[in-house]
């Protein structure tokens, strides 16, 4: 019987978490691992929050309750913090540290959390925090939009999910446009290395 692993992914609309979900789904299929997925969309097209729940292994529900996530992957630091309740002491949290300032902060109606405090808080509630500037690595890989692939690299490095590097890279080849494949594979490798060093 395969152990069930639960991943919560949070992003701001347009950050590519739907493609990341699609790549993970394909990787699971290639690995012969059952996977169920559900997505909660905010106003995705307007920079709202998109949350995906992916469950690997034999599970009947696609709901991940508070405290049940094995991994939390955040494309944006404040959104990672907001989803922290999904984690427990054994969870691994992965977050991009490049903020996307919400509209309220930009117009002076809100305050963005301090990134050091944010990391301390996440670290205090999880087993491991992998936090780095995934946006800078995506740019270095040749496509600023490949933040999702940088984060998939970091996720694969943790070995929490029953997916190998080969599974994920093969899925990327099937799911990403040929023009972006090289940059995406570079982004994956940079994210993998960043997680090793985190």
Descriptive overview:
The chain is of the alpha/beta class and 198 residues long. The chain has 8 helices and 6 strands; from the N terminus they run E-H-E-E-E-H-E-H-H-E-H-H-H-H. The chain has helices at 17-31, 77-82, 103-106, 115-125, 134-141, 147-158, 165-175, 178-197, and strands at residues 5-12, 35-41, 49-56, 71-74, 92-96, 128-132. It has a 6-stranded mixed sheet, sandwiched between helices. A hairpin with a 7-residue loop joins strand 2 (35-41) and strand 3 (49-56). Helix 5 (134-141) crosses helix 6. The protein is globular and about 50 Å long. It starts with a strand and ends with a helix. The mean pLDDT is 92.
């Amino acid at each position: 019987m395969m152990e069930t692993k639960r991943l919560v992914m949070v992003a701001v609309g347009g950050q590519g978490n739907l493609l990341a979900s699609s790549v993970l789904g394909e990787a699971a299929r290639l690995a012969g691992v059952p996977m169920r997925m559900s997505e909660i969309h905010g106003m995705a097209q307007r920079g709202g929050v998109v949350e995906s729940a992916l469950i690997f292994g034999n599970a009947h529900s696609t709901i991940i309750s508070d405290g049940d996530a094995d991994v939390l992957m955040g494309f944006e630091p404040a959104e990672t913090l907001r989803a922290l309740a999904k984690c427990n002491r054994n969870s691994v949290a992965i977050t991009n540290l490049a903020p996307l300032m919400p509209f309220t902060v930009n117009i002076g109606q809100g305050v963005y959390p301090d990134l050091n405090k944010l990391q301390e808080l996440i670290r205090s509630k999880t087993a491991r925090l992998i936090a780095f500037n995934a946006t800078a690595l995506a740019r270095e890989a040749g496509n600023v939009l490949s933040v999702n692939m940088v984060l998939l690299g970091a996720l694969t490095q943790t070995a929490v999910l029953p997916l190998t590097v080969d599974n994920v890279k093969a899925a990327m080849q099937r799911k990403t446009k040929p023009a972006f494949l090289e940059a995406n594979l570079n982004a994956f490798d940079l994210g993998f290395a960043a997680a090793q060093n985190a």
